[in-house]
Amino acid sequence: MITLALSKGRIFDETLPLLKAAGIEVLEDPEKSRKLILPTNQASVRVVLVRASDVPTYVEYGGADLGVTGLDTLIEHGGQGLYQPLDLNIAKCRMSVAVRADDDYAALVRTGARLKVATKYTAIARDFFATKGVHVDLIKLYGSMELAPLTGLADAIVDLVSTGNTLKANHLVEVERIMDISSRLVVNQAALKLKQAPIRAIIDAFAGAVKKD
Ligand code: PRT
Ligand code: MG
């Protein structure tokens, strides 16, 4: 049995065409079914639905043989025990710093005072500001980062931006782009050895179906 970990939503949706290229069709719609294990047209392949941030953990410990995860989530996890053969070029966005539209970010940084930064992505934020030489107090949040600068909880946020509409709707502006983000295929290293042929077949089919920019 080959088990693939996916999260519902954009990652599931954007992985479907890649699965199709590998001859795999998921037999149930995760938005309609309450099942967490979905069968496919191949008796030896199944999909498990996990929280996006849990995909690397499932694959690391062998709860799944493969998974699809955002680079953001992969960096925060650390990537230990994971073989990362492919950039799938899906679920694209960027990791950015944003502040209130009426705040002067450059001036805030220039004062040298510690910057209060709210984020779900503490590893990425810590590394980015350390490289810049800016001292920060990181405030870990699990959702709605946009609210932090509006309520005085933080001076800035580090969050994912796609269209920019969420920032705009909350009177925030993007002031730095930290990195481009896309989703990656991750594979359990032991599974790759034990189930080499079927896993290689999936990796190769995905590689052939990845859309270039
Ligand atoms: O929702 P949950 O807490 O379970 O997990 P999750 O938010 O990590 O999952 P999901 O499915 O929302 O995101 C999975 C992956 O999709 C992320 O890890 C990213 O790699 C990728 N991705 C691509 C995005 C976006 N685009 C995106 N726009 N993830 C989140 N967003 C959010 C962003 O955080 C912000 O709140 O969308 C909002 C901004 O969107 P715009 O279009 O208004 O700029
Ligand atoms: Mg989300």
TrEMBL record:
Pathway info: Amino-acid biosynthesis; L-histidine biosynthesis; L-histidine from 5-phospho-alpha-D-ribose 1-diphosphate: step 1/9
Record key words, sorted: Amino-acid biosynthesis, ATP-binding, Cytoplasm, Glycosyltransferase, Histidine biosynthesis, Nucleotide-binding, Transferase
Family statement drawn from the similarity comment of this UniProt entry: Belongs to the ATP phosphoribosyltransferase family. Short subfamily.
Main location: cytoplasm
Gene that specifies this protein: hisG
EC number: 2.4.2.17
GO-annotated cellular components: cytoplasm
Species of the source: Limnohabitans parvus II-B4
Protein name: ATP phosphoribosyltransferase
Entry superkingdom: Bacteria
Role description: Catalyzes the condensation of ATP and 5-phosphoribose 1-diphosphate to form N'-(5'-phosphoribosyl)-ATP (PR-ATP). Has a crucial role in the pathway because the rate of histidine biosynthesis seems to be controlled primarily by regulation of HisG enzymatic activity.
Subcellular location: Cytoplasm
Domains: entry comment: Lacks the C-terminal regulatory region which is replaced by HisZ.
Pfam families: HisG (PF01634)
Domain ATP phosphoribosyltransferase catalytic: 51-206
Single Gene Ontology BP annotation: L-histidine biosynthetic process
